[in-house]
Design goal:
about 210 residues, alpha/beta, TIM Barrel, eight-stranded parallel β-barrel, 8 strands, globular, binds SN-glycerol-3-phosphate
Length: about 210
């Protein structure tokens, strides 16, 4: 399973750029960083070869396609994030015909994911944390999407998004999701285990004791 970082922070991306497989941003994350959107994207895209998702703000198909074409010019590894609406699906169809990669975002059901795949989306992003927040089961939705895609051989890849904790990543991997996009804090936690730290300390102490 590929691991993307869900952040627009250049500092966070730089720290893990050689280990992660891609980056996803959204307007909330970009707004936190300030400055020019295009410049920030250019900086992020230069840090790693993997896909970097950047979201359009327009709600109309024409505006989305226009924004997407502009963003796609920033770098070769840009993927255009399009919200899951009817206007969005028309934009995805158009962009897919132009060879521009898309990531359909704000997906909360398997029927939405089915439309994204039918329209030729490169990626689809079910928001598991936000589903769980409303007492739903985000991972069940991911499971359904994977089954639906498997049934019809859709090549749209599933990015598990709105990841809140390590357990979401474990479950994504167990279900066979293509990608999990994780906040920096969760990305760091994926490496950690207290017994690893304790084990390193004990090995070094034993080495010192025996070898002076
Ligand atoms: O980037 C989209 C998604 O991962 C947002 O997560 O935590 O705001 O629901 P969250």
């Amino acid at each position: 399973m590929r691991i993307f970082l869900d952040t627009a922070s250049v500092q966070e991306i730089r720290e893990l750029a050689d280990l992660i497989d891609g980056v996803t941003t959204n307007p909330s994350l970009v707004a936190k960083e300030g400055g020019s959107f295009q410049e920030l994207l250019g900086e992020i895209c230069a840090l790693l070869p993997g896909p970097v998702s950047a979201e359009v703000l327009s709600l109309e198909t024409e505006g989305m396609v226009r924004e997407a074409r502009e963003l796609a010019r920033v770098a070769d590894n840009i993927v255009i994030k399009i919200p899951m609406t009817i206007a969005g699906m028309r934009a995805v169809k158009q962009l897919s015909a132009e060879g521009i990669d898309t990531n359909v975002t704000l997906v909360f059901s398997s029927t939405q994911a089915l439309w994204a795949a039918k329209c030729g989306a490169t990626y689809v992003s079910p928001f598991v944390g936000r589903i769980d927040d409303r007492a739903g089961n985000g991972m069940e939705v991911v499971d359904d999407i994977l089954e639906v895609y498997g049934n019809y051989g859709y090549t749209t890849e599933v990015i598990v998004a709105s990841v809140r904790h390590v357990r979401h990543v474990v479950e994504s991997a167990l279900l066979g999701a293509d990608i999990a996009t994780v906040p920096y804090k969760v990305a760091r936690q994926l490496f950690d285990h207290p017994l690893t730290d304790e084990g390193i300390e004990r090995f070094l102490k034993d080495w010192e004791k025996a070898r002076g």
